Amino acid sequence: MNPKRIPLIAGNWKMHLGLADAAKLAREIREGVGAGDAEVALLVPFTALAVVAEILKGSPVKLGAQNLHWEPQGAFTGEISAFQLADAGCRYAIVGHSERRRLFGETSAIVAKKLAAALAAGLLPILCVGETLEERESQKTWGALTEQFRAALTGLPPVEAAKITLAYEPVWAIGTGKTASPAQAEEAHAFIRKLASQAHGEGFASALRILYGGSVKAENIDALMAQPDVDGALVGGESLKPISFLRIIHYKTLAAAGTRRP
User: Fold this and answer.
1) Which residues, in sequence order, are CB contacts of 88 under 8 Å at separation 6+?
2) Structure confidence by residue, pLDDT tens digits, 155-206
3) Considering 169, 189, 238, 250, which one is annotated as catalytic?
4) Is residue 148 part of a domain?
5) Structural domain harbouring 140
6) Three-state secondary-structure class, residue 256
7) Is 69 noted as a catalytic residue in this protein?
8) Is residue 141 included in any domain, yes or no?
9) Which CATH number belongs to the domain containing residue 207 in this structure?
């Protein structure tokens, strides 16, 4: 990766853990992070935000949310606004995760509104883009990435776009145990960076962090992070396992020491 881009390892806990287990995991991560090789964020369920925020206070680990509504307030039963997330101590928020798009019908237009709402509230969005297995097999990967990227960033001022972190998540590799090869990940990341250059220029593109998400494990993080356009990882199931997640966080130090697995 480019040394000018600070890598980000973000753990997406999805719909897992009660309060006691969330607190225990957050403490283990906080205690094990140390100086670290990357910026670290925990993207936790709404119910655990207050508990985890208190545990992370004063640590380098950032708190994040997994979703948000596009309106700042109103009669939207069961939803939560970007302002409420920021008020709860969140620094990051995922926008447009493939599970939101696929299971909950979020269109690119909805994702764009959520992205704008997150930025307006001072959150740093992690914008997810990626293709399905059908799209990859029918040679539509680049079209899918282009549509999702442009729908989210079109009309966004460069100063706001600069606050976004991209996450490439091939849908066929999420929760399946399959992982895009390092070469496949690099190819997609390089393509996204080209889109970024077309949108806002080379300076924006070279500074844009692009994470890989899709069955990231301690066993494959070193090879993924060796790619020049991979700037970190959006980690799912392995982020619930403190030993594995800490190995991913410390990929650079432990790989240099010859420690390949937790």
Assistant:
1) 49, 50, 53, 63
2) 888 899 999 999 999 887 776 667 778 999 999 999 999 999 998 999 999 9
3) 169
4) yes
5) 8-256
6) helix
7) no
8) yes
9) 3.20.20.70
